[in-house]
Write a structure and sequence with these properties.
24% strand, 5 helices, alpha+beta, 3-stranded antiparallel β-sheet
Length: 192
């Protein structure tokens, strides 16, 4: 009765008056049913309310491994951090290119496992390591084609890294890879 009286104050007053004056439950039931029949939903009724987009941040960094099993492996680290108070159900990690083309990395470069999108709890993060050389080969060395790192969740919301940061970190990864392949020449040894 209290909930209904909040929706229709006039009906609520009548029900309170009846309940004070009478203990007859049949009278109260009939009055309540009449007030329900007269109730018209508000214009907002039937609309779906959605929560605001979660605060999910995507950042990138240049990384490298040391020690076994893959010493000196250089990669682009993608971190997806959930700063919101709700779980976020991730769907995919993509690298958008011009003309609506997408690169969809399939395997973590360090762990050599398929990339599977998790549920990210509030205050938690998810990190994936991408093979910088494979990305470079996919765009024929033209890193300017990489627009961003795009993360989607299961209901289609998109979270993006800063495109300039992504390209700068990829260039850093590739320069480290090239430096490890072609180390600078050793200085000449002094004459004896």
């Amino acid at each position: 009765l209290l909930f209904h009286s909040d929706l229709d104050p006039e009906a609520g007053q009548r029900l309170r008056r009846l309940s004070r004056d009478s203990l007859d439950l049949d009278v109260l039931r009939c009055a309540f049913e009449e007030s329900l029949a007269a109730f018209e939903p508000s214009p907002a009724a039937g609309k779906v309310l959605t929560a605001p987009t979660p605060d999910v941040r995507v950042t990138t960094g240049a990384g490298a491994t040391f020690g076994p099993p893959h010493p000196g492996l250089h990669f682009l680290a993608v971190t997806v951090a959930n700063h919101s108070p709700v779980r976020v159900y991730m769907q995919s990690l993509l690298l958008p290119l011009p003309e609506n083309r997408l690169l969809a990395p399939q395997v973590d470069a360090v762990y050599r496992q398929p990339i599977t999108a998790p549920v990210i709890e509030p205050g938690d993060s998810w990190q994936v390591r991408l093979d910088g050389e494979a990305i470079s080969q996919a765009v024929n060395g033209d890193l300017s084609l990489i627009q961003t790192v795009l993360i989607t969740d299961k209901i289609g919301r998109e979270y993006r890294a800063n495109g300039n940061e992504v390209r700068a970190k990829l260039r850093e990864v590739l320069s480290r890879i090239n430096a490890s392949k072609f180390p600078p020449p050793s200085p000449p040894s002094p004459p004896e």
